[in-house]
Queue: 2 jobs
Job 1
Amino acid sequence: MKIGWIGGWGVSLEEMKAIAVAHAPDAEHLIYPPVVGAAENLSGCDAVIAWSLGAHLVLEAGARGVQFPAKVLLFAPFTSFCSEHGKCGKHSETQVKWLRRWIDTDAPAALADFRKRAGLAPLAGDALPYEKEYLQAGLDLLAQPAGISLITFGRQGLAPGWEAYVGDQDTLLNPEGVCQAIVGCHIGEALGHDLREFLAP
């Protein structure tokens, strides 16, 4: 069993690996940061698990016709992240662009602030979770509204074998808005934005 993973923005591959191994200790795991092109690398897996910005990238790739395995799990997904670009997100484009500028000047502080807002544990030390240019590119993606193909893809409902979940306590996303944008998405009770909460046994 080979499981492909794409994590959320600002989450290290080491963190994702710990989550992956705890979830499926006997599987082979292929783990990517949430960067453009990552979703296309997962077509040879038996299953895909994508979280937050990673889930957005998988949805966007699906809208472009990328073929995925029979089983796709999306956690805390969205079509557009910013509150002005639909009903999925709770934060404004201005806030995302402010975070983007902050990454340029003090990346560790910017990441710490974001993780606190998202309800994620702080990173250990000042090391970046992955390359700074990918952190910047991720925020540029978050600041953009979804294109018409992604909006249409979300509204036509999840394909067979695809599942999507968003927490009712998510501090970054509006669960009702996510479920309007991604037809077939389920709201999880007493769950936030952290992937570990969704995968807890």
Job 2
Amino acid sequence: MTRTFLIALALAAVVAAPLQAQDAAPARFFIERIEVRNAHRVSADLIVSESLLRAGAEYTEDELRAASLRLNRLPYLLSADFALEKGSDRGRHVLVITVAETKPFFYFIDARPILNDEQRRTAVDYAGSLGADTSDAAIGYRKFIGRRGVAHIGITSRRDRQEFTTDYSAPAIGYTQYDLFGTRAFATVNLRWPVEPARNPTLSPQVVVGIPLTPKHTLTLDYEETRFSRSTTFINDAPYTLQDGERIVSFAWAYNTTNQPFVPTRGTFVRIAPQWSSRDLASYSRFIMIPGTDRVDAYADHFNSYGVDAIAARYFELSDRDSVSATLQAGWTNTEERANQLLTPQVIRAQPLYALIGGGWSYNLRPDAAKEAGDSRVELDAQYVARQGDYDREGQRFVDLNSDEGMRLSAAWVRRNVWGTLRLGLGYTWK
């Protein structure tokens, strides 16, 4: 009986120990003041605002760590280290944030051509990823204005490999205001001038509004209108319009605990983005039947689509040199195209979807370098990609030639420092 009682008591202690650990409240630190050091171009008020921390409040160690990671993901900071110093009285602390800024000139270049052998010819795809949040190049200049404002000018390029959006490059100028009305929200306004594949482009606006719910969770609304061409030509005193433009609206929820914005080595990133897009095309064909007599056939095409894009990535830092990652990405879209050529209406409906699962390994070439020196890493990635694009034309189903599946392997060298991020590499796809 005694042995049974002791065994039962030991089991109860084993079960109760985790419960007591869970019930124990984590230590909290009262922050009476926040001090930012080594900030020269970036406003200290902006750094404190983006940390989502406030003086005069208590925070746990996990909350302080999440705020530190959030600052490390800002594109204009190379690093941000937290330290607690003694305050004016016992139990009070001064939070010291030591930062390393990036240069006002910045760049992000992801140059990894993906080769594939199709129909006995070599094709090149420069998109290293899929989905709505893909950009493979940006270069520009950033200027901080006031306490919480940032102006920027530069050139950007988007390649997302989606059938319902258009890849383009464009000069852009914009402004971002942080901590709007003290709500922690931010807003960015961009004016872009698409130069490729545009013919007669006009200024194209973009508005991004977001609010961080916590240092880990953010909601973002993105409205983007791109005007590739717009002009009017008179033939036989009748106006004919050349038009090509698209609108994209997305609403994204993101969970992010990674340690860097472009070359993460640890943490989790999850993003789910419902989106809606439309595109309007208008053109004409001109034939000269008899000298002095023109025949003009107008053409119009309208695309309307909605869908959702999602990605989940997990990064594991095995040592100061090695990091591995796993990625799962998927997207689905419902698309309707209404074309009118030679007065013959045509409706084409499609539901393209894709899925990607992959893994990666990166190796730090400079583990002993100071944080201000940045990162230099070698990356190896393997991905399995499947895309399906069946469509329906006037009730008849067809198989889209863009449907495919296969393995993709790539290798790259990536360098991130105070000037920006450069990734150079090469990949190959087996279908």
